[in-house]
Design goal:
By secondary structure, this protein is of the alpha/beta class. It is built from 18 helices and 13 strands. It has 3 domains: 106 residues, Rossmann fold, CATH 3.40.50; 147 residues, Arc Repressor Mutant, subunit A (Orthogonal Bundle), CATH 1.10.10; 107 residues, Trna Endonuclease, Chain: A, domain 1 (3-Layer(aba) Sandwich). The strands form 2 sheets. An 8-stranded mixed β-sheet has the order 7-6-8-9-10-11-13-12, with helices on both faces. It has a 5-stranded parallel β-sheet with strand order 2-3-4-1-5, sandwiched between helices.
Length: 400
């Protein structure tokens, strides 16, 4: 059993996250004895679908400040109106969990107009597992709890294959998110092969044999079902030629590999680079989310392929991170940092290299860190120390 780093809320939240990240377990750990409506129970879902006002009638007499859980709330979007009434009139608090925001957007466009805070739950991170991360395992099978705890590679592979099939049949076909399931399945494999790379919509459209606008809609489905997110490019002031297309990152490397059909094979060196980058990206993204730091992440790349993998603007300056799947750090990896420093001058305050080697070092005012040291001994709390003061939640990596 893991102790999750997701903070316990003080008020109503929309606890959204992909299937299998542990939303129900987190709820049971933090709210074990509160009234719960489980919409995975068909009888419960059908009853509330026909009479959503039943929720109001059954909970309106609870004491002010009481908690109520609705699991898989997207299955009955009409409940959001009742939740709205209960929050406003009776000051109840709700945990509204789900794996898709798509139906909620259609059924309740304002998502309670800020009365419930969007609070995503992600796969496991290093702080939660409390052990030295085995890179080959994490990049091959990801950090979903059941895949991480699998007793053998075969067990992890079977789970991830089942996960992808369930996503297509239950999330996509079952929720009628698209009528062209075959086209979506082709798109999914091609998009997963381009994970962590600059996204070329036209090429994906051609390879998947679906229209360009359809591909854009498919990416929207992936975002709404929490299976991935965009990383937008940072635009330097100098106006030099820069890549302005976003990258798309799947939420978990194991799921991305299952979509490509490559679980049975060890990652190639090229694959490992993108998978390692995906892992570090999600560690940083999860840290910022759980710490309630409202900072956006970007990447920067020039047309001559000089790049910085992650850029984050904090209140006191910029943090730039270059991620390399290599055991030996080389000075040529600093080219992106040099261009950023030249353009931003004093604004770029911190530069970090994260790699798969064993020894930390410092070169040209750039801190070079083995990834486990970056995640644990060094800790992202120090990395973003300029903004921790403003955070209202505590997220403390071990060994700090």
């Amino acid at each position: 059993m893991f102790t999750r780093a997701h903070p316990k809320p003080k008020g109503s939240i929309l606890l959204l996250g992909p299937r299998g990240v542990g939303k129900s377990t987190w709820i049971q750990q933090n709210f074990p004895k509160v009234p719960t409506y489980d919409l995975l129970n068909s009888r419960e879902a059908i009853s509330l679908l026909g009479h959503p006002d039943r929720l109001y009638d059954e909970t309106k007499t609870l004491p002010t400040g009481s908690w109520v859980v609705i699991d898989e709330v997207q299955k009955v979007p009409a409940l959001m109106d009742e939740v709205h009434r209960l929050i406003e009139k009776h000051k109840l608090n709700f945990i509204l969990s789900g794996s898709s925001a798509r139906k909620l957007k259609k059924g309740s466009a304002n998502l309670l107009a800020g009365r419930a805070i969007f609070s995503p739950l992600f796969p496991l991170v290093s702080h939660e597992v409390g052990a030295t991360i085995q890179l080959q395992k994490v990049c091959s099978y990801g950090m979903l709890p059941k895949a991480y705890l699998a007793e053998s590679p075969q067990e992890a592979q079977d789970y991830l294959d089942t996960y992808v099939n369930a996503y297509l049949q239950e999330e996509i076909k079952g929720e009628a998110l698209t009528r062209n399931l075959a086209g979506f399945a082709r798109f999914l494999e091609i998009a997963a092969r381009q994970n962590a790379q600059i996204t070329n919509i036209s090429n994906i459209s051609k390879d998947a044999m679906v229209a360009r606008l359809t591909v854009q809609g498919y990416f929207e489905i992936l975002c709404d079902t929490m299976l991935g997110s965009w990383l937008q490019p940072w635009k330097l002031r100098s106006g030099n030629k820069q890549v302005l297309s976003p990258k798309f990152y799947f939420f978990d490397s194991g799921v991305a590999r299952a979509m490509t059909g490559r679980l049975a094979y060890p990652p190639t060196p090229d694959e490992l680079g993108f998978l390692f980058e995906t892992y570090i990206f999600h560690e940083v993204k999860t840290y910022l989310s759980y710490s309630r730091l409202k900072y956006n992440l970007y990447y920067w790349r020039s047309y001559d392929d000089v790049e910085v993998d992650l850029i984050c603007e904090t209140k006191k300056g910029f943090v730039a991170i270059e991620i390399k799947s290599t055991d030996r750090w080389e000075k040529r990896f600093h080219m992106g940092f040099a261009r950023l420093k030249a353009d931003m001058k004093s604004k770029l305050t911190e530069c970090y290299g994260v790699f798969t080697g064993d020894r930390a070092s410092s070169l040209e005012n750039i801190k070079i860190l083995p990834f486990n040291q970056f995640l644990k001994n060094f800790g992202m709390e120090r990395l973003f120390r300029s903004c921790i003061i403003s955070s209202t939640h505590s997220y403390s990596p071990p060994h700090l």
